[in-house]
Amino acid sequence: MHQNKVEMWLPEDFRCPISLDVMKDPVIVSSGITFDRHSIESWLDAGNIICPVTRQVLCHTHDLIPNHTLRRHIQQWCVANREMGGIERIPTPKAPLTCAQIGDILVMISAPQSCREGLRMLRAAAMESDGNRKRIASTNAATVVASAFCAHAATATDKSRASSVDVCEDALATLATTGHLDSEARAILLSSPPALASLTSFLVHGNSEGKTNAALMLQELTADRQHREELEAADGMEQGLVELVKEGPSVTGTKAAITTMYYVARDKSIRIKLVKASAIPLLLEILPESDKFICERSLAAVDLLCNCVEGRSAAYGHALTIPVIVKKILRVSNLATEFAVSILWTMCCHSSTGSAMIDALQSGAFQKLLVLIQLGCSEKTRKRATQLLKLFSHYTHEWECIETMDFKEAKRSL
Fold first, then answer.
1. Statement: residue 137 has pLDDT above 70
2. Which residues contact 120 (CB under 8 A, 6 or more apart)?
3. What residue stretches are annotated with the U-box domain (predicted)?
Protein backbone atom coordinates (compact mmCIF):
# COMPACT_ATOMS: atom_id res chain seq x y z
CA MET A 1 0.00 0.00 0.00
CA HIS A 2 1.36 3.45 -0.94
CA GLN A 3 1.13 5.21 2.41
CA ASN A 4 1.23 8.81 1.13
CA LYS A 5 -1.62 8.33 -1.36
CA VAL A 6 -3.87 6.40 0.97
CA GLU A 7 -3.69 8.62 4.04
CA MET A 8 -5.89 11.32 2.47
CA TRP A 9 -8.89 9.13 1.65
CA LEU A 10 -8.70 5.98 3.77
CA PRO A 11 -12.03 5.79 5.64
CA GLU A 12 -11.47 6.37 9.35
CA ASP A 13 -13.60 3.35 10.28
CA PHE A 14 -11.08 1.15 8.47
CA ARG A 15 -8.16 2.36 10.60
CA CYS A 16 -7.13 0.58 13.78
CA PRO A 17 -7.37 3.09 16.67
CA ILE A 18 -4.01 1.82 17.98
CA SER A 19 -1.81 1.44 14.89
CA LEU A 20 -3.79 3.89 12.67
CA ASP A 21 -3.19 1.46 9.78
CA VAL A 22 -5.89 -0.29 7.77
CA MET A 23 -7.20 -3.29 9.74
CA LYS A 24 -6.38 -6.72 8.30
CA ASP A 25 -8.19 -8.74 10.96
CA PRO A 26 -10.75 -6.49 12.71
CA VAL A 27 -12.07 -7.77 16.05
CA ILE A 28 -14.51 -6.33 18.57
CA VAL A 29 -13.64 -6.08 22.28
CA SER A 30 -16.08 -5.91 25.19
CA SER A 31 -16.23 -2.10 25.03
CA GLY A 32 -17.75 -2.33 21.55
CA ILE A 33 -14.72 -0.84 19.75
CA THR A 34 -13.11 -2.60 16.81
CA PHE A 35 -9.33 -3.00 16.60
CA ASP A 36 -6.91 -4.93 14.42
CA ARG A 37 -6.32 -8.28 16.14
CA HIS A 38 -2.52 -7.99 16.23
CA SER A 39 -2.62 -4.48 17.74
CA ILE A 40 -5.17 -5.20 20.48
CA GLU A 41 -3.52 -8.51 21.39
CA SER A 42 -0.18 -6.70 21.78
CA TRP A 43 -1.95 -4.08 23.92
CA LEU A 44 -3.46 -6.77 26.15
CA ASP A 45 -0.23 -8.80 26.33
CA ALA A 46 1.52 -5.69 27.68
CA GLY A 47 -0.78 -5.89 30.72
CA ASN A 48 -3.28 -3.25 29.68
CA ILE A 49 -6.88 -4.00 30.67
CA ILE A 50 -8.37 -0.61 29.73
CA CYS A 51 -9.88 0.06 26.30
CA PRO A 52 -7.56 2.64 24.67
CA VAL A 53 -10.57 4.45 23.18
CA THR A 54 -13.37 4.38 25.77
CA ARG A 55 -11.12 3.86 28.85
CA GLN A 56 -13.51 1.13 30.01
CA VAL A 57 -12.18 -1.98 31.77
CA LEU A 58 -12.08 -4.81 29.23
CA CYS A 59 -13.49 -8.17 30.26
CA HIS A 60 -13.31 -11.54 28.45
CA THR A 61 -10.04 -10.45 26.85
CA HIS A 62 -9.50 -13.92 25.39
CA ASP A 63 -12.78 -13.71 23.50
CA LEU A 64 -12.14 -11.28 20.66
CA ILE A 65 -15.11 -11.32 18.29
CA PRO A 66 -14.23 -11.13 14.57
CA ASN A 67 -15.93 -8.20 12.81
CA HIS A 68 -16.69 -10.02 9.56
CA THR A 69 -18.91 -7.25 8.19
CA LEU A 70 -16.22 -4.59 8.55
CA ARG A 71 -13.56 -6.91 7.14
CA ARG A 72 -15.68 -7.54 4.02
CA HIS A 73 -16.19 -3.78 3.59
CA ILE A 74 -12.43 -3.22 3.87
CA GLN A 75 -11.78 -5.96 1.32
CA GLN A 76 -14.33 -4.46 -1.09
CA TRP A 77 -12.80 -1.01 -0.64
CA CYS A 78 -9.33 -2.42 -1.34
CA VAL A 79 -10.52 -4.05 -4.57
CA ALA A 80 -12.37 -0.89 -5.68
CA ASN A 81 -9.29 1.29 -5.09
CA ARG A 82 -6.62 -1.14 -6.25
CA GLU A 83 -5.64 0.81 -9.38
CA MET A 84 -5.99 4.27 -7.84
CA GLY A 85 -3.81 3.77 -4.80
CA GLY A 86 -1.80 0.63 -5.49
CA ILE A 87 -3.79 -1.18 -2.78
CA GLU A 88 -3.92 -4.95 -2.50
CA ARG A 89 -6.93 -6.83 -1.14
CA ILE A 90 -6.33 -7.99 2.44
CA PRO A 91 -6.57 -11.79 2.77
CA THR A 92 -9.31 -13.39 4.82
CA PRO A 93 -7.64 -14.34 8.12
CA LYS A 94 -7.85 -17.83 9.50
CA ALA A 95 -10.06 -18.16 12.52
CA PRO A 96 -7.94 -18.51 15.68
CA LEU A 97 -7.96 -21.75 17.60
CA THR A 98 -10.54 -21.85 20.38
CA CYS A 99 -10.01 -23.46 23.77
CA ALA A 100 -12.69 -26.01 22.88
CA GLN A 101 -10.82 -26.99 19.72
CA ILE A 102 -7.59 -27.30 21.66
CA GLY A 103 -9.37 -29.58 24.13
CA ASP A 104 -10.58 -31.82 21.28
CA ILE A 105 -7.05 -32.06 19.86
CA LEU A 106 -5.63 -32.95 23.29
CA VAL A 107 -8.17 -35.78 23.55
CA MET A 108 -6.84 -37.07 20.22
CA ILE A 109 -3.26 -36.89 21.48
CA SER A 110 -4.18 -38.86 24.59
CA ALA A 111 -5.54 -41.72 22.48
CA PRO A 112 -2.81 -44.00 20.99
CA GLN A 113 -4.62 -44.50 17.68
CA SER A 114 -5.02 -40.76 16.98
CA CYS A 115 -2.00 -39.43 18.86
CA ARG A 116 0.18 -38.64 15.87
CA GLU A 117 -2.62 -36.92 13.96
CA GLY A 118 -3.44 -34.81 17.01
CA LEU A 119 0.20 -33.83 17.48
CA ARG A 120 0.47 -32.65 13.91
CA MET A 121 -2.77 -30.68 14.18
CA LEU A 122 -1.58 -28.96 17.36
CA ARG A 123 1.80 -28.12 15.88
CA ALA A 124 0.26 -26.77 12.67
CA ALA A 125 -2.06 -24.55 14.70
CA ALA A 126 0.84 -23.27 16.81
CA MET A 127 2.81 -22.40 13.68
CA GLU A 128 -0.09 -20.39 12.24
CA SER A 129 0.01 -17.49 14.67
CA ASP A 130 1.33 -16.12 17.96
CA GLY A 131 -2.25 -15.98 19.19
CA ASN A 132 -2.66 -19.72 18.74
CA ARG A 133 0.62 -20.39 20.54
CA LYS A 134 -0.42 -18.25 23.48
CA ARG A 135 -3.82 -19.92 23.65
CA ILE A 136 -2.21 -23.38 23.56
CA ALA A 137 0.26 -22.34 26.27
CA SER A 138 -2.64 -21.31 28.51
CA THR A 139 -3.95 -24.90 28.55
CA ASN A 140 -2.44 -28.16 29.80
CA ALA A 141 -1.22 -28.99 26.29
CA ALA A 142 2.45 -29.26 27.34
CA THR A 143 1.57 -31.82 30.00
CA VAL A 144 -0.52 -33.92 27.59
CA VAL A 145 2.16 -33.87 24.87
CA ALA A 146 4.92 -34.65 27.41
CA SER A 147 2.91 -37.63 28.67
CA ALA A 148 2.48 -38.89 25.11
CA PHE A 149 6.21 -38.52 24.50
CA CYS A 150 7.04 -40.54 27.63
CA ALA A 151 4.47 -43.25 26.83
CA HIS A 152 5.84 -43.83 23.33
CA ALA A 153 9.47 -43.44 24.40
CA ALA A 154 8.97 -46.44 26.69
CA THR A 155 8.23 -48.63 23.65
CA ALA A 156 10.48 -46.87 21.13
CA THR A 157 13.47 -49.04 22.05
CA ASP A 158 11.67 -52.04 20.60
CA LYS A 159 12.60 -52.23 16.90
CA SER A 160 9.20 -53.65 16.09
CA ARG A 161 7.61 -50.45 17.38
CA ALA A 162 9.14 -48.03 14.88
CA SER A 163 5.89 -46.06 14.89
CA SER A 164 6.61 -45.09 18.50
CA VAL A 165 9.81 -43.36 17.36
CA ASP A 166 7.79 -41.41 14.80
CA VAL A 167 5.29 -40.35 17.46
CA CYS A 168 8.15 -39.28 19.74
CA GLU A 169 9.63 -37.22 16.92
CA ASP A 170 6.28 -35.48 16.31
CA ALA A 171 5.76 -34.94 20.05
CA LEU A 172 9.23 -33.42 20.37
CA ALA A 173 8.59 -31.11 17.40
CA THR A 174 5.25 -30.09 18.91
CA LEU A 175 6.78 -29.29 22.30
CA ALA A 176 9.50 -27.23 20.63
CA THR A 177 6.94 -25.31 18.56
CA THR A 178 4.39 -24.63 21.27
CA GLY A 179 7.08 -23.23 23.56
CA HIS A 180 7.56 -23.15 27.31
CA LEU A 181 7.22 -26.31 29.43
CA ASP A 182 5.21 -25.88 32.61
CA SER A 183 6.41 -27.43 35.87
CA GLU A 184 4.17 -30.48 35.49
CA ALA A 185 5.36 -31.26 31.97
CA ARG A 186 8.98 -30.81 33.08
CA ALA A 187 8.49 -33.18 36.01
CA ILE A 188 6.89 -35.81 33.75
CA LEU A 189 9.84 -35.79 31.35
CA LEU A 190 12.51 -35.74 34.04
CA SER A 191 10.97 -38.66 35.88
CA SER A 192 11.04 -40.88 32.80
CA PRO A 193 14.44 -42.49 32.00
CA PRO A 194 13.14 -43.70 28.58
CA ALA A 195 12.11 -40.14 27.75
CA LEU A 196 15.55 -38.79 28.63
CA ALA A 197 17.17 -41.59 26.63
CA SER A 198 14.94 -40.73 23.68
CA LEU A 199 15.83 -37.04 23.93
CA THR A 200 19.52 -37.93 23.89
CA SER A 201 18.98 -40.25 20.94
CA PHE A 202 17.37 -37.46 18.90
CA LEU A 203 20.17 -35.09 19.94
CA VAL A 204 22.88 -37.51 18.78
CA HIS A 205 21.28 -39.43 15.92
CA GLY A 206 18.37 -37.27 14.72
CA ASN A 207 18.17 -35.12 11.61
CA SER A 208 18.98 -31.41 11.91
CA GLU A 209 15.44 -30.53 13.01
CA GLY A 210 15.33 -33.38 15.51
CA LYS A 211 18.68 -32.34 17.02
CA THR A 212 17.53 -28.73 17.33
CA ASN A 213 14.23 -29.72 18.93
CA ALA A 214 16.00 -32.01 21.39
CA ALA A 215 18.39 -29.20 22.34
CA LEU A 216 15.46 -26.83 22.87
CA MET A 217 13.77 -29.32 25.20
CA LEU A 218 16.98 -29.99 27.12
CA GLN A 219 17.35 -26.23 27.54
CA GLU A 220 13.83 -26.11 29.02
CA LEU A 221 14.53 -29.05 31.33
CA THR A 222 17.90 -27.78 32.56
CA ALA A 223 16.69 -24.24 33.25
CA ASP A 224 15.31 -25.50 36.58
CA ARG A 225 18.36 -25.88 38.81
CA GLN A 226 16.57 -28.22 41.24
CA HIS A 227 16.24 -31.03 38.70
CA ARG A 228 19.57 -30.93 36.86
CA GLU A 229 20.97 -33.96 38.68
CA GLU A 230 18.25 -36.11 37.07
CA LEU A 231 19.85 -35.41 33.68
CA GLU A 232 22.86 -37.50 34.65
CA ALA A 233 20.74 -40.40 33.38
CA ALA A 234 20.82 -38.87 29.89
CA ASP A 235 23.93 -40.77 28.80
CA GLY A 236 25.68 -39.13 25.85
CA MET A 237 23.98 -35.76 26.28
CA GLU A 238 27.25 -33.87 26.73
CA GLN A 239 28.84 -35.23 23.55
CA GLY A 240 25.61 -34.60 21.66
CA LEU A 241 25.54 -30.96 22.72
CA VAL A 242 29.16 -30.45 21.66
CA GLU A 243 28.56 -32.12 18.29
CA LEU A 244 25.46 -30.00 17.68
CA VAL A 245 27.44 -26.79 18.20
CA LYS A 246 30.21 -28.12 16.00
CA GLU A 247 27.82 -29.03 13.18
CA GLY A 248 25.79 -25.82 13.57
CA PRO A 249 22.67 -26.96 11.65
CA SER A 250 20.78 -23.87 12.85
CA VAL A 251 21.36 -20.76 14.94
CA THR A 252 18.45 -21.81 17.17
CA GLY A 253 20.04 -25.21 17.81
CA THR A 254 23.45 -23.69 18.51
CA LYS A 255 22.02 -21.19 21.01
CA ALA A 256 19.98 -23.90 22.75
CA ALA A 257 22.98 -26.26 22.97
CA ILE A 258 25.33 -23.62 24.41
CA THR A 259 22.69 -22.42 26.88
CA THR A 260 22.14 -26.02 27.98
CA MET A 261 25.88 -26.48 28.46
CA TYR A 262 25.87 -23.43 30.72
CA TYR A 263 22.93 -24.75 32.75
CA VAL A 264 24.26 -28.29 33.23
CA ALA A 265 27.87 -27.20 33.86
CA ARG A 266 26.76 -26.18 37.37
CA ASP A 267 26.69 -29.89 38.20
CA LYS A 268 30.26 -31.06 38.84
CA SER A 269 29.92 -34.55 37.32
CA ILE A 270 28.30 -33.19 34.13
CA ARG A 271 30.91 -30.41 34.02
CA ILE A 272 33.70 -32.99 33.82
CA LYS A 273 31.84 -34.89 31.08
CA LEU A 274 31.56 -31.69 29.03
CA VAL A 275 35.30 -31.08 29.43
CA LYS A 276 36.04 -34.63 28.28
CA ALA A 277 33.76 -34.03 25.28
CA SER A 278 36.09 -31.13 24.27
CA ALA A 279 33.57 -28.40 25.02
CA ILE A 280 36.20 -25.81 25.99
CA PRO A 281 38.23 -25.80 22.72
CA LEU A 282 34.99 -25.69 20.73
CA LEU A 283 33.54 -22.76 22.67
CA LEU A 284 36.80 -20.85 22.43
CA GLU A 285 36.99 -21.37 18.68
CA ILE A 286 33.48 -20.04 18.01
CA LEU A 287 33.96 -16.94 20.20
CA PRO A 288 35.74 -14.70 17.65
CA GLU A 289 32.87 -14.76 15.12
CA SER A 290 29.90 -15.17 17.47
CA ASP A 291 27.10 -12.69 18.09
CA LYS A 292 26.36 -11.14 21.47
CA PHE A 293 24.02 -13.92 22.69
CA ILE A 294 26.33 -16.79 21.76
CA CYS A 295 29.38 -14.92 23.03
CA GLU A 296 27.82 -14.28 26.46
CA ARG A 297 26.57 -17.87 26.84
CA SER A 298 29.86 -19.35 25.63
CA LEU A 299 31.88 -17.26 28.07
CA ALA A 300 29.45 -18.19 30.86
CA ALA A 301 29.88 -21.89 30.07
CA VAL A 302 33.69 -21.65 29.88
CA ASP A 303 33.69 -19.78 33.20
CA LEU A 304 31.87 -22.66 34.89
CA LEU A 305 33.95 -25.34 33.15
CA CYS A 306 37.15 -23.69 34.41
CA ASN A 307 35.96 -24.21 37.98
CA CYS A 308 37.28 -27.77 37.89
CA VAL A 309 40.87 -28.96 37.48
CA GLU A 310 40.04 -30.81 34.26
CA GLY A 311 38.50 -27.69 32.77
CA ARG A 312 41.45 -25.48 33.63
CA SER A 313 43.83 -28.07 32.23
CA ALA A 314 41.90 -28.04 28.93
CA ALA A 315 41.94 -24.23 28.89
CA TYR A 316 45.67 -24.05 29.64
CA GLY A 317 46.29 -26.51 26.82
CA HIS A 318 44.62 -24.31 24.20
CA ALA A 319 46.88 -21.63 22.75
CA LEU A 320 44.01 -19.22 22.05
CA THR A 321 42.41 -19.28 25.49
CA ILE A 322 43.99 -16.19 27.04
CA PRO A 323 44.15 -14.03 23.86
CA VAL A 324 40.51 -14.73 22.97
CA ILE A 325 39.26 -14.13 26.51
CA VAL A 326 41.20 -10.87 26.90
CA LYS A 327 39.92 -9.64 23.53
CA LYS A 328 36.32 -9.99 24.71
CA ILE A 329 36.86 -7.66 27.68
CA LEU A 330 35.09 -4.33 26.95
CA ARG A 331 34.21 -5.51 23.43
CA VAL A 332 30.81 -7.21 23.63
CA SER A 333 28.73 -6.27 26.67
CA ASN A 334 29.03 -5.74 30.42
CA LEU A 335 27.93 -9.33 31.01
CA ALA A 336 30.51 -10.73 28.58
CA THR A 337 33.20 -8.61 30.23
CA GLU A 338 32.33 -9.95 33.69
CA PHE A 339 32.54 -13.56 32.49
CA ALA A 340 35.81 -12.89 30.65
CA VAL A 341 37.39 -11.29 33.75
CA SER A 342 36.19 -14.22 35.86
CA ILE A 343 37.79 -16.74 33.49
CA LEU A 344 41.03 -14.76 33.39
CA TRP A 345 41.06 -14.48 37.19
CA THR A 346 40.50 -18.23 37.62
CA MET A 347 43.22 -19.19 35.18
CA CYS A 348 45.80 -16.73 36.54
CA CYS A 349 45.13 -17.55 40.19
CA HIS A 350 45.59 -21.27 39.52
CA SER A 351 48.57 -20.94 37.19
CA SER A 352 51.51 -22.68 38.85
CA THR A 353 54.11 -21.53 36.32
CA GLY A 354 52.94 -17.97 35.75
CA SER A 355 52.55 -18.59 32.01
CA ALA A 356 48.91 -17.48 32.15
CA MET A 357 49.97 -14.08 33.53
CA ILE A 358 52.59 -13.64 30.82
CA ASP A 359 50.07 -14.56 28.11
CA ALA A 360 47.55 -12.15 29.61
CA LEU A 361 50.08 -9.31 29.70
CA GLN A 362 51.12 -9.97 26.12
CA SER A 363 47.44 -9.91 25.10
CA GLY A 364 46.88 -6.46 26.58
CA ALA A 365 45.05 -7.49 29.74
CA PHE A 366 46.85 -4.98 31.96
CA GLN A 367 45.65 -1.95 29.99
CA LYS A 368 42.12 -3.30 29.58
CA LEU A 369 41.69 -3.97 33.28
CA LEU A 370 42.87 -0.47 34.13
CA VAL A 371 40.29 0.99 31.76
CA LEU A 372 37.60 -1.33 33.14
CA ILE A 373 38.19 -0.15 36.70
CA GLN A 374 38.07 3.48 35.57
CA LEU A 375 34.85 2.99 33.59
CA GLY A 376 33.18 1.09 36.41
CA CYS A 377 31.87 -2.45 36.81
CA SER A 378 30.27 -4.68 39.45
CA GLU A 379 31.96 -4.91 42.83
CA LYS A 380 32.88 -8.56 42.31
CA THR A 381 34.46 -7.88 38.93
CA ARG A 382 36.28 -4.81 40.24
CA LYS A 383 37.84 -6.87 43.05
CA ARG A 384 38.97 -9.55 40.63
CA ALA A 385 40.37 -6.99 38.20
CA THR A 386 42.30 -5.37 41.08
CA GLN A 387 43.67 -8.75 42.19
CA LEU A 388 44.76 -9.51 38.64
CA LEU A 389 46.59 -6.19 38.36
CA LYS A 390 48.47 -7.03 41.56
CA LEU A 391 49.37 -10.46 40.17
CA PHE A 392 50.55 -8.89 36.91
CA SER A 393 52.82 -6.49 38.77
CA HIS A 394 55.02 -9.46 39.75
CA TYR A 395 55.49 -10.40 36.08
CA THR A 396 55.86 -6.95 34.49
CA HIS A 397 59.66 -7.18 34.36
CA GLU A 398 59.56 -10.62 32.80
CA TRP A 399 56.99 -9.40 30.29
CA GLU A 400 59.22 -6.42 29.38
CA CYS A 401 62.17 -8.80 28.92
CA ILE A 402 60.13 -10.96 26.57
CA GLU A 403 59.04 -7.88 24.60
CA THR A 404 62.66 -6.71 24.36
CA MET A 405 63.81 -10.14 23.12
CA ASP A 406 61.00 -10.19 20.58
CA PHE A 407 62.11 -6.75 19.33
CA LYS A 408 65.74 -7.89 19.01
CA GLU A 409 64.67 -10.95 17.04
CA ALA A 410 62.57 -8.70 14.82
CA LYS A 411 65.58 -6.43 14.15
CA ARG A 412 67.78 -9.41 13.23
CA SER A 413 65.21 -10.63 10.71
CA LEU A 414 65.08 -7.26 8.91
1. yes
2. 170, 174
3. 9-84
